[in-house]
Design a protein that fits this description.
6-stranded antiparallel beta sheet, alpha+beta
Length: 104
């Protein structure tokens, strides 16, 4: 079962039905950042920090090797620029970026 926060404070602007739907789809740590729904989702080899979730999909996905690092990045991120931590790749919205901090 996915780990979730106290969603009454983390995503207080979302209707309970939206939170339940996201949880049923495997999302956890649901929170609002800069007016966008953000959450975590486990994939086969990575954990995605999803940004801009809506009924159709998401705007951006930051791939982290470890769920703990994704959770810490989401908790610390204010929604401006890229989240911190060792994300490997950012995908979505017509872009695919490697984390510049991990290159070289």
């Amino acid at each position: 079962m996915p780990r979730t926060r106290d969603l009454s404070t983390a995503a207080s602007d979302l209707p309970p039905e939206a939170i339940q739907t996201l949880q049923a789809q495997g999302f956890s740590d649901i929170i609002m950042r800069q007016g966008q729904i953000c959450a975590l989702k486990d994939f086969v080899f990575t954990t995605g920090l999803m940004v801009g979730l809506d009924p159709i999909g998401y705007r951006l996905r930051y791939c982290y090797e470890h769920a703990r690092e994704a959770r810490e990045a989401l908790a610390a991120w204010d929604g401006e620029g890229h989240p911190g931590g060792p994300w490997i790749k950012c995908k979505g919205a017509g872009i695919e970026l490697l984390n510049p901090a991990l290159r070289d």
